[in-house]
Amino acid sequence: MKRAIVLSIATCCLLALAPALAAGAGSGQKKLVLNRIEEMYAPVVFDHAMHEGQASGCNDCHHQHKNAAVQSCGDCHKIDAAVFKKTADARKIKACRDCHPASVKSDDPGKPTLKAAYHRACFRCHKDIGSVGQDPKGCTETCHAAKAQAKRD
Amino acid sequence: MPNHVNRREFLATLAVAGGTVLVGGTSKAFASKDLSGWPDRFGMLVDLTECVGCRSCEKACNEANALPKPEVPFDEKSVFDQKRRPTASAYTVVNRYDNAKNSGTPIYRKVQCNHCNEPSCAAACPVRAYTKTPEGAVLYNKDVCFGCRYCMVACPFYAPAYDYESALEPRIVKCTFCHERVKKGGIPACAAACPVGTLTFGKRKDLVEVARRKIRQSPDRYVDRIYGELDAGGTSWLYLSPVPFETLDYPKGLPEKPIVENTKGFLSAVPMVLTIWPALLGMCYAANKNKEGKE
Question: What's this model's pTM, rounded to 2 decimal places?
């Protein structure tokens, strides 16, 4: 049950982010449903269009890989939403899950799992905004619908 | 007369021999139990800069160990108003601390057994209820425990809790590092539940490398220290922090040599003193008595 919960959470986050990235990046994507690792919570409905306006740039959320194995978006494109929309092929954008595994790989324990990567992407800002990181209930206030919570009660 | 001198010399020799055992015991290398044969033992790296205080780890631990339902639900933040310790019904707890670096984002510290390389709880236990396993976990066996609670006194991290509810069946309660799951190839429930990757489970030697790399890559983010790498002889659980560890109530000034070392030399001499000395002195006495009888 706990495992399922954990997985759901992770799935939620991941799914939400992955489609957002793939379909939404720069393409004026509106709302994305993140549910790949959904488990404990209902899928995250991610309002990409709204975040485009809030963030100062794409790489506030989409991290730029600094290792040699993955080509950085910035190698070809100017990382600016307006430019990116016109020049980037959204289908070529790597999804988070392409690099971040669902569970820790013993040969590379330092690499964040998909669930961790999703949450960290959000928490970069949301740790200081709203009640996430201040209040455990912030999870359900801001992003997740608590389907497991409803079940438990 | 010659007898008298011999006896004195004999006793002096014994004393020197005993002293050598004592000194020899303490001057050895730190490892009283050589862990080099367990290079793949597991550990957990806790990155305190990531934790958001969601208490998912507490909840997962509660469910994994079939512990009683808590009085306050796991999504309740009022528990952070006071500092908690692990109890018989909670193997792990998360406490909140003010962040000296950034007052807006508090620091959350998870507390549980650190599964020492050389556990002082095991050394203090008179009935060997504690075992350090090759996987890294320090396990407790309630079947032999008689409830002296020396382990609670010996632990520098205040990890073992006592089940005061069951007076007739004494029972210490503490984190098991989810030993059964780990043996089956799984990972501890808390690490599986953590949504932000605060907890990284892996081989301890790999985690030390991961931690060093993190400090190297982000020197502004972390204090230059891995708590648990050497403290109290090293622990399975390792910690990275954005602020000095003592401000988060991590025990300060623990020796780098295992706490066990403080008493091991002395204690290892006890069996010898108790067995060899009486035998030799008895022989002396018998020889003297025999002589006196002849005279």
Answer: 0.76
